[in-house]
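Q: Convert this sequence to structure tokens.
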Amino acid sequence: MFAWRRLQSFRLVANRQRPAWCVRVETRSLALPQTCANCGQIAAEAHRLIGAGRGLLIPYCSRCAAHLARAVTTSLAATLASAMLVVTCLATLPRLVSELSLVGMLLGVSLAGSFPLLAANALRRRFEGPQTSSGRAVHWSSRNELVCFNAQWANQLAGNSGTTARSCRAAEHTVSPWSWLICALGLAATPSVHHFSFPQLVVLNFSEGPISVEVDGSTSHAVEPTSLESSRAGGKLRLNSGHHDLLVRDAKGAAIEEREAYLQAGRPHLLAVASKDYCFWLERDSYGKQAEARRHFTPLPRGDGFWVLPTSIDSWFAANPTPAQDERSTGGTMVALRHALCSDVPTELRAAFAER
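A:
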């Protein structure tokens, strides 16, 4: 029962807004009230508040100053913990999980980064008695106004400043807004980290029936026959970089091929099953001012059935768009991965494949 009441005393809603008083300060020099900005009792020390291009020494009594110091320490600890957890997730998730979708990685990073911030808010102490805040009782608003949770102290400040205190609603910030920026930066970096740490493996099936590819003896992926060129052909897997044991089985469950493949981070890979009669090559086309008179062909080595491909493949198993006669645009290059029966490869490549 005691534990339940203790849990009930925690604030579980982050930065919940409540009544406050806003004082617009126009003068550079202020005569701040000498009482505690939190509880209104006699002040014993002052804490610096920076904002709106100036710094103010806000008075607090000893008890409220201790609560403020505890709140500042908790906020700093939550910020550092959030940053460390975000970096740890980005660095370790690709090593701990062999197959992880981008959505799963985004969810993991967001939970890791937000947990310390939500925990710091949920476990903050409630103010008691004459106190009006569990930490900082005065802070700057986005409109360059001083937001006060103590109505009496706000009215005294307004009187000293020759202005009035208006009623408003504000949130008592348990953690710094910069802490949430850390989570946002971590989420923004996640797609790039995921793309680099989980390279793509494209599996082509040149056998007569469907196959299944087992990865590290755990997950299995079905791949239909893909003898003809098509941009949608094959199975596309995202595996973490490093060594993987790949076992290929036919429709009856018999093992066709077993190999250990090393996937390089940031590079696409191709696995072609039963492809001894097929040849693969890269086609490079230039556009705009970089356009060249002919198309460049680069044959891939034959025999192994597994290739580490260039960093960027623009067209998978399809020709690049035909270059237009445009010399005004800066242009660029596109790379296509093509395949065909070795007897049907382009004339420019037959000599190169014959040498291999």
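The chain has six helices and 18 strands.
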